[in-house]
Design goal:
Layout lengths: L1 H8 L5 H19 L10 H21 L5 E2 L5 E4 L5 E9 L5 E7 L5 H12 L6 E5 L2 E2 L13 E6 L19 E2 L5 E9 L3 E12 L2 E13 L12 H6 L11 H12 L11 E6 L3 E7 L6 H7 L4 H20 L2 E2 L8 E4 L2 E4 L6 E2 L56
Parallel strand pairs: 3-7, 8-12
Antiparallel strand pairs: 1-2, 2-3, 3-4, 5-6, 5-7, 9-10, 10-11, 11-13, 12-13, 14-17, 15-16
Helix pairs in contact: 1-3, 2-3
GO molecular function: ATP binding; protein serine/threonine kinase activity
GO cellular component, one term: nucleus
Protein name: Aurora kinase
């Protein structure tokens, strides 16, 4: 039946031509399916070939049904949507070869995530492996499909191994501006740690054509702590092969890189600590941020009971900060009361030294293995055993089917 309708609907494109298109798609699969930094999944060529055949059949059957749709000269089919609004049929093609993937009926205000669902239904390519581009620009899943007429979309299929990670993804270079002489006046020390001291300074600088004096916080990082050359960047390798040179869990260059990136965002929420500058002197690197006059939430909670209304506000602000980081594929990994500052009663999430890239370029959630963050804030599901085997002795009174807490290696239950 398909062959008969093919001959009727399009005398040029018969079954043999369709098979040739499928073979062509298979030959181009290596270029289409693979993306820099990702590994192509075995069998991708077969999926592409199948997609081309399905696409060809769909086009043939549509042309055979006279009057069912009006095909524009551009190849974009336009018809009336169920709500009376005009809709487009999008032709999705592989980016590298231009071979067709499928056609998708797109309604007005349709989101990219919905287009990906339709592509998955027609081709079997999982949503998380789809990277869809329009005019060379990668489209995010929550964005709406804008424009009308010919909407040409291209697809790249990329598959990442979620266990392969890069701890140095956010690291910045060490080419910082020299510390301006006489611009900073020390007010008082604030804290100290492995990376260095945190101090309260008054910064005299020019802004908008006039001189201002601004209270800032300065984290003075020892320059030798910024040296990471020769260290392993794949966290799974660090976990499995302890003899390799592992970087410190607290990475100063990662923190500077993330804060630099965030400071460049025009929509940065108040709830993320803003970086004001980075400067270098002989033995230290100065990381300058806004000054939070209210201290950290740990001190607030230790001094007095936090009323419920304030607690709710703090939690809402924290969730806004986390949501923004997740939109930018940043996983903090060290959220704690000590890393939540208060400025004018509004929280500021800080300390990005343990942060990582949360997703690959194709949107695959990445897997990390080291126990980072503080022990008492770490979720049970991210516990990593310290030994391959452990001995657990259940209580003598325990009955079959009951749950018992048993002490294991490292003092955990």
């Amino acid at each position: 039946q398909a062959g008969a309708r093919a001959s009727f609907g399009n005398p040029v494109l018969g079954p043999s031509a369709m098979a040739g298109s499928g073979a062509a798609a298979g030959l181009g699969a290596g270029a289409d399916g693979a993306q820099a930094g990702d590994r192509a999944e075995p069998g991708a060529r077969a999926v592409e070939a199948q997609a081309v055949i399905q696409y060809s059949l769909q086009r043939i059957l549509k042309n055979a049904d006279a009057g069912a749709a009006a095909v524009c000269p551009t190849g974009t089919t336009r018809h009336e949507a169920g709500n009376g609004a005009e809709a487009n049929t999008l032709e999705v093609r592989w980016m590298a070869t231009g071979n067709p993937v499928c056609s998708v009926a797109a309604a007005p205000k349709m989101r990219v995530s919905e287009v990906k669902d339709l592509v998955r239904e027609q081709t079997g390519v999982p949503v998380e492996e789809q990277r869809i581009f329009k005019d060379g620009r990668l489209l995010s899943g929550g964005a709406a499909m804008a424009g009308s007429g010919k909407l040409a979309l291209t697809l790249v299929r990329s598959v990442s191994d979620p266990r392969v990670t890069n701890l140095g993804h956010f690291r910045t270079s060490t080419n910082f501006e020299p510390l301006p002489e006489g611009a900073f006046t020390l007010v008082k020390p604030l804290a100290s740690g492995l990376q260095g001291e945190v101090l309260h300074y008054r910064w005299r600088r020019a802004a908008a054509g006039e001189e201002i004096h601004e209270c800032v916080a300065v984290k003075k990082l020892r320059s030798e702590r910024l040296e990471v050359r020769g260290t392993e960047v794949d966290e799974r390798t660090v976990h499995l092969e302890a003899w390799r040179k592992a970087p410190d869990a607290e990475d100063a260059l990662t923190e500077i890189g993330i804060l630099t990136y965030l400071a460049q965002q025009p929509d940065l929420p108040l709830y993320l600590l803003r970086m004001l500058g980075v400067f270098a002197e002989e033995h230290f690197t100065w990381l300058v941020t806004e000054f939070a006059d209210g201290g950290d939430l740990f001190a607030v909670a230790a001094a007095s009971r936090v009323v419920e209304t304030n607690l709710r506000r703090y939690m809402w602000q924290l969730l806004q900060a986390e949501a923004y980081l997740h939109q930018h594929h940043i996983g903090h990994r060290d959220i704690s009361l000590e890393n939540l500052l208060l400025k004018g009663g509004v929280i500021r999430l800080m300390d990005f030294g343990m942060a990582v890239r949360s997703h690959s370029a194709s949107g695959v959630p990445l897997r990390f293995f080291r126990p980072v963050g503080k022990d008492f804030y770490r979720a049970p599901e991210v516990y990593v055993p310290t030994a391959a085997k452990t001995r657990a002795v259940p209580p003598a009174a325990a009955l079959p089917g009951t749950v018992a807490m048993c002490r294991a290696a490292g003092g955990y239950l």
